[in-house]
Design the sequence.
């Protein structure tokens, strides 16, 4: 979907999805190189992965925490450089997805999924039920 060296191949996505659950990130520079990133970019990835493994094996998987306080941005930039991120990865701790600027905006993901045409059951799955099912299957 997006040529990024940290992206998963379709074969890897199928292998993971066959065994459980694939989380789609809300990390904007993993989704696109477009300067104005929207939830539509996220939805394209959801659609693609659901097409590969089925909607029952897809969810939201992110560690992106907008907004990152200014005082932490330099420290985090040094850490991601230490673990291998390079300038072409475009890590920008101040960047956000349009309409997903704060945690309080996360209901916009639900709205976008519904407006995009996903069923209530699919949306519930994406928002956590798919993960919970896999977790119960694995842990018991």
Sequence:
């Amino acid at each position: 979907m997006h040529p990024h060296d940290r992206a998963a191949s379709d074969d890897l996505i199928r292998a993971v999805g066959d065994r459980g659950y694939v989380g789609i990130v809300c990390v904007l520079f993993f989704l696109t190189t477009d300067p104005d990133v929207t939830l539509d970019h996220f939805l394209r990835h959801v659609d693609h992965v659901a097409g590969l493994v089925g909607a029952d094996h897809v969810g939201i998987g992110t560690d992106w925490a907008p907004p990152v306080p200014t005082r932490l941005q330099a420290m985090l930039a040094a850490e991601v450089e230490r673990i291998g991120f390079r300038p072409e990865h475009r890590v920008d701790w101040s960047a956000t997805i349009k309409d997903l600027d704060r945690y309080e905006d996360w209901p916009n993901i639900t709205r976008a999924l519904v407006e995009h045409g996903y069923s209530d059951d699919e949306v519930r799955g994406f928002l956590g039920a798919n993960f919970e099912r896999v977790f119960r299957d694995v842990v018991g």
